[in-house]
Amino acid sequence: MKTRILSAIYFAVSLLFIFVSMQAGKNTAIINKALIMPSLAVLFLLNMKRPPGRQDYMIIAGLFFSWAGDIFLELPDSEVMFVPGLASFLLAHVMYLTVFFSTEGKNTISLRKPVLILPVLTYGAALVAYLYKYLGDMRLPVIVYAVVILTMLTGAINRYHKVSIISYLLVLSGAILFVLSDSMIAINKFAIAIPSARIFIMITYVTAQYLIITGYLRQSGDIR
């Protein structure tokens, strides 16, 4: 019951931001967006049934850097704040990928099984190739970001056989949605305008974060 209520609050805050950002002024949207990640952090902390460990602190750090990225990207001077926002989310992905790769168990991905990450590499190469001519001075930061987020997705794939199947699928689905959300941000900003981009970006983003956090909690047996 507790998890359901906290989940409902998280998605209600997220949907409210989408509505407010389409209707109201910038300041109101910033205030509302600033509540999204803290509400997910509350869900995470209140569901923990054990003393926090190193991985738990890294998850919390991932949520904090995501919160910072949310704020930077919502500030009025979005062009100037884009790089700090990008850096914040890059750090969030570093936190998540570290947690994923440090999950105890035999690694699924190895040099003997490159086929497992072939779809990830293909997608990343195709996305960078498509965006390359549009990026200008942002080429290096965007390529570095793409490498990090795809490494995060690879880490989610690598959890196979290390955790329960439901935990694995939740985190993997969240990682995929995170990649899609960030891909839409890049395409919409640098290449072509995506119709209703803000709505699709936020829906995939908040769902991605929720799946990653709840999947991780299932890994630890904190929720079932």
If you had to describe this structure to a student in words, what would you say it looks like?
This protein has helices at residues 2-23, 26-33, 36-47, 54-74, 78-101, 118-135, 139-157, 165-191, 197-219. The protein has one domain (2-219). The model has no long low-confidence stretch (mean pLDDT 91). Helix 3 (36-47) packs parallel to helix 9. With 224 residues, it is mainly α. Helix content is 78%, strand content 0%. It starts with a helix and ends in a 5-residue tail after the last helix. The longest helix has 27 residues, at 165-191.
Number of domains: 1
Indicate the low-confidence ranges by residue numbers: none
Q: How many H/I helices?
A: 9
CA radius of gyration: 17 Å
Q: Averaging pLDDT over every residue, what do you get?
A: 91
Described by strand count, sense and barrel closure, the largest sheet is: none
Helix percent reads over 70%
The helix/strand order is HHHHHHHHH
What's the total number of strands? 0
Counting helices, strands and paired strands, the structural category is mainly alpha
Q: In one word, what is the shape?
A: globular
Strand residue content = under 5%
> First CA to last CA: what distance?
12 Å
Name the features.
single chain, 224 residues, mainly alpha
Topology:
Blueprint: H1 2-23, H2 26-33, H3 36-47, H4 54-74, H5 78-101, H6 118-135, H7 139-157, H8 165-191, H9 197-219
Helix pairs in contact: 1-2, 1-3, 1-9, 3-4, 3-9, 4-5, 5-7, 6-7, 6-8, 7-8, 8-9
